[in-house]
Amino acid sequence: xxxxxxxxxxxxxxxxxxxxxxxxxxxxxxxxxxxxxxxxxxxxxxxxxxxxxxxxxxxxxxxxxxxxxxxxxxxxxxxxxxxxxxxxxxxxxxxxxxxxxxxxxxxxxxxxxxxxxxxxxxxxxxxxxxxxxxxxxxxxxxxxxxxxxxxxxxxxxxxxxxxxxxxxxxxxxxxxxxxxxxxxxxxxxxxxxxxxxxxxxxxxxxxxxxxxxxxxxxxxxxxxxxxxxxxxxxxxxxxxxxxxxxxxxxxxxxxxxxxxxxxxxxxxxxxxxxxxxxxxxxxxxxxxxxxxxxxxxxxxxxxxxxxxxxxxxxxxxxxxxxxxxxxxxxxxxxxxxxxxxxxxxxxxxxxxxxxxxxxxxxxxxxxxxxxxxxxxxxxxxxxxxxxxxxxxxxxxxxxxxxxxxxxxxxxxxxxxxxxxxxxxxxxxxxxxxxxxxxxxxxxxxxxxxxxxxxxxxxxxxxxxxxxxxxxxxxxxxxxxxxxxxxxxxxxxxxxxxxxx
Length: 500
What we know:
The structure is a single chain. With 500 residues, the chain is of the alpha+beta class. It has helices at residues 52-70, 110-128, 137-147, 149-152, 161-170, 177-182, 195-201, 223-229, 243-251, 304-315, 322-331, 374-400, 417-427, 439-453, 458-465, 475-496, and strands at residues 5-11, 15-21, 27-34, 77-84, 89-92, 98-102, 157-160, 186-187, 192-193, 217-220, 236-242, 258-262, 268-273, 285-288, 295-300, 341-343, 360-362, 406-410, 431-434, 468-471.
């Protein structure tokens, strides 16, 4: 595969990205675009729906622009693959027309999901490994059944966003285990469609498409599509997994007891297991690894990265390069932020108790004696994300009953050097840090490379392809951070009792 290129479409939570990877794994070109949404003003403000036509047009345009940016013969593009956000789904009619395209932030089915959980929560968790139901496909189907029956009656197929984009490219509609599982479509123990559960829930069972392994070439770019995106017909289209699970591959997290932290819009921690492990208290999620013989256990810090972006927009909006300014200011503040603590996201995942929590900043008062500034608030926000990683890591180890052998981190948060530097000290253990933030796209690249090179072991290829550096904790700094973490944890417990 020397001197050939692979295109990755990464349909993430905040944006769609298109990247072109060289044969050595370097990125040769990259474009991105925001999601396009349908106006749903008559519905709840928590309802979000994608404009499918605009999304496809934007994706096709970015692919064509990236191909042009590389400035090579298009015949040297060896493959294209797609990964996408978890929980995002598309409903299709019998002719393949999009009836609904929903992102992971569409919360229209809150009441329908609550009713499902009250009546059948234990059964749902047993089959899918996750609650609450309102996040997943069957609750959204029930919403359409109750509120849009004219659309519901036409639904023939459900596809994840990655499935749909691959279908637009190739004309082949297939799914993959991690994508299906994250959308609540899969019996995770047997890795098959959970048709019986959908029947028990009284909603349609719009399955019927094959589930293929990540790293499988399912067809090729259609000639008429290739003419639009700047590729010759016949370029292989390869199956990849969900974005977080691809992030694990990009980090080289492919062995039992290893943990990957994909710190982007959200900050999930996933540990690899060789059998499905369930949390008896239903706080955290069980899912599938891209390898057929492995599973994952997940405890997430919630939208920690999104909360940090909110802080940038709110307090640093006038700065040129706000994130760089924030990083610099945080680096000037000592560990512990001189008593300032931040609670902008989830301290520890607990999906058995979903709802809004009290949060914000806590600092020594009166301010006459503390002089709290933007740097303190920023440092405290970064420390809170690191503390949340530690809290969720402890929960993973408690539920799985095993000690973590490796922690690797990637995603957009690693661009903030002060956060990366504090993380091993907060955790009190070594941390492998990716060489570049885009570990999700890098993992998808690995799946396409596996298909082209005929690798029998996707895991071995992932381990060999991941580029990380190891940061070691300082014993003195770790001891200091242990004290700060304990205080932060105690305060988090007080806030947990003050739900809003």
